[in-house]
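Run PA0069 family radical SAM protein through structure prediction, thanks.
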Amino acid sequence: MDSNPTIKGRGAQINLRNKFFELSHEMRDDFLEYCAKEGEEADKNKTLYLEVFPKTIVNKVDSPDVGMGYSMNMYQGCEHGCIYCYARNTHEFWGYSAGLDFERRILVKKDAPLLLEKFITRKSWHAYPIVMSGNTDCYQPAEQKFKLTCQCLEVFLKYKHPVGIITKNSLILRDLDLLKALAKDNLIAVNLSITSLSEETRLVLEPRTATIKKRLETVKILSENGIPVNVMMAPIIPSINSHEVLPLAKKVSEMGASSMGHTIVRLNGAIGEIFSDWIKKTMPDRADKVLHQIASCHGGNLSDSRYGTRMRGEGEIAKQINDMVTLAKLKYFKGKAMPTLNTALHEQYKDGQLKLF
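Sure, done. The structure for PA0069 family radical SAM protein is below.
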């Protein structure tokens, strides 16, 4: 397994043409040759943070198989660079490529805390869990600089509003005190993504994420502090991490996880070409096998948009994976479960303090 893709520290190795644009930008071979001769960098591979000004921050989720009713994203694009990320396609809506642009053009919503406060204090709003990172990771590297996730947690705490978090970054431990305060009233649930126990696999799949060791430690610390953690093995990719279901379930259960979830990889939209290019460069010895097995889970296609089957797949390989996850849950999570978050307190705190009458 080659852990050194052409563009180091990135998942995608190409920028695809944005399907919404008539024109596109191309890095030509003659330009690359010129740069090499002149000793210049053709691509500086830098991350840019670009401020945007949305009118709203909370989105209603209509998809019936996602498992959340409302989500919010402080950042669009994600420097983690996970090659399989379904959120890549949304970057095209902002005028960028789902490939390298998704990892290097990070859109920052600095007004997120104010927009959140405005949303949950509306008279018509009735508390319902809002999930941070329904699209891109709220604890990606940009959070170290902008601290928007931290500020939003403070808003949730102030108004006693339930919140869920999806992340694969140990940076979440920076906000441990806030999480503990929310947990006292059963207002927080954390979903931590761990796709492998192999650091080698992690490096090529998710180049700028927290190490596996740090993520396992994060599960342990959160659980020890009374913060419920669901570990997401998402996605499971045939012949890359599909053999790790049982050992990963055992390990995260030992670390204190309350439950485990999973999805089977699907490569919708631009992700199919981005992933195919990546795997042929990083795992050329198994690329065709992996792509064929992914397609076998989705009726012969790399993509799958069918509600009910898109997350779990179909066919023999998908059945084997799903059966293995069922066995893992029975073996390592029997008697464990994530709590239902508390929606009863918020109405009393809509003005930011407890109403006595």
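Residues 1-5 have pLDDT under 50 and may be disordered.
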